Amino acid sequence: MKPAKKKSPPLKSNLQADSKPSGYHHGNLREEVLEHSRKVLETKGVSSLSLRDIAGDLGVSHTAPYRHFPKKMDLLQALVAEGFRELTEAMQRAWDHSEDPFEKVKMAGVEYIFLLLKSPRRTELMFGGEIYVSGDTLSEELREYGKLAYLGMFKIVEFGQKSLKLKNSVPTDTLMMSFWSGVHGFAVLNERKWKQIKSKEEEGIFRKEVDTILEIMIEGTRL
């Protein structure tokens, strides 16, 4: 009697044999890529951003992020659009903060300073990064949020002028840019100081300094 033949295991295709779970089973990969990209951008800089590396860090196939961001510039534009969206929301909070024109302007400065200090490398991209010289067309999302952020600050300054509290001898956009430039410069110059803060007491001292600087700036805009 011949021994029964052992059944051979079913053959696997190369794809089956070599495949690993890609992790691309969730529907929020775009948000995860953006969140991880923010961390890489702030800790290592824009030159270290790589869609392939991000895919590896997130445990998905190296092609998965490209479904949302066909190239690196698309990712950078999305990060910048996100920054302008947050700035738009910050200007709305400043507008809602008080009916007093000076308090609105002051809170706009506070919001901007701490938004920049939270994400300084992203802010660099927002106001002069490589996306503007790359030759790529700016996305509709980026252009829309950029416009809304600008109008948010413009509205606050215009309100102060119409309330006869801020100088109205100069155009609104000129007065706005004068204030905004000062606020931006203060935040940039104090980025290192902010990062070195280790206690609530030190943070409180820094915030008082911010208030004082903003009051000095606002004094120069008074009618």
UniProtKB/TrEMBL annotation:
Keywords, alphabetical: DNA-binding
PROSITE patterns: HTH_TETR_2
A Pfam family matched in the record: TetR_N
Annotated region described as Disordered, given as residue ranges: 1-26
GO MF, any single term: transcription cis-regulatory region binding
Record-annotated DNA-binding residue ranges: 50-69
HTH tetR-type domain: residues covered: 27-87
Transmembrane segments: none
Recorded superkingdom: Bacteria
Gene3D superfamilies tied to this protein: Tetracycline Repressor, domain 2 (1.10.357.10)
Protein name per its UniProtKB record: TetR/AcrR family transcriptional regulator
